[in-house]
Amino acid sequence: MSQQSETLQLFLSHRSELLRQAHRITRDRAQAEDVLQEAWLRFRAALAERQMHEPLSYLSRIVRNLALDSARRSGLESRLFHNESDADPLQVPSEAPSQEAAIISGSELRAVENALALMPERMRVAVRMHRIEDIKLKDIAEQLGISVTSAHGLVAEGVARCRRALRDKL
Fold it and tell me: Comparing 31-45, 76-90, 106-120, which segment has the lowest mean pLDDT?
């Protein structure tokens, strides 16, 4: 009997026990099945690289570690992406900005608009194209008939002026 068939026989003869082990940790049958499949792939790859004295212990350790990782990941995902329809609608914060945030944002926007208005035309165009329209410097340079280095310089100086305007506003 080849090592590969012995390995498969070992896995199959202990599959239900390994599945129970993964299920106890993950508390989800489908997740436990996924863990077992990943464990088999890792176990087979490890056996191809080296000889093992206790392959069942190694396989069991792989299942345990993968199940723990999977359970942690599921817990994190459920905390991050819980179903908001289950939440109390009175406890869900509004997505609309507060009046204070809206006033501050409006003030900052006006400061940036004023800074843009005071810039030379090519600089203003370069900043708008790069920062607002998300156009690459290469395309800006081509459209303005300048080098990429010059386009970068215009954008960098324009952004610096906008930052100064915001800083001065404070």
Answer: 76-90
CA 48 to chain CA centroid, Å, is 33
The answer to whether 137 touches 149, Cβ cutoff 8 Å, is no
147 contacts 141 by C-beta, under 8 angstroms: yes
Q: For residue 67, give the 3-state DSSP assignment.
A: helix
Mean pLDDT of 8-21: 91
Instruction: Report the distance separating Cα 42 and Cα 59, nearest Å.
Output: 9
- Decide: 144 and 125 in contact? Cβ < 8 Å: yes
Can you spell out the DSSP letters for 113-141?
HHHHHHS-HHHHHHHIIIIIS---HHHHH
Crossing angle of the two packed helices 15-26 and 55-80, in degrees rounded to 10: 30
Tokens coding 48: 């191809």
Please give the Cα distance from 111 to 106 (Å, whole number). Answer: 9
CA angle 33-35-41, nearest 5°? 105
Confirm if 21 and 62 have CB atoms less than 8 A apart.
Answer: no
Cα separation, 146 vs 123, whole angstroms: 12
Is 48 or 62 the better-scoring residue by pLDDT? 62
Q: pTM of the predicted model, to two decimals?
A: 0.47
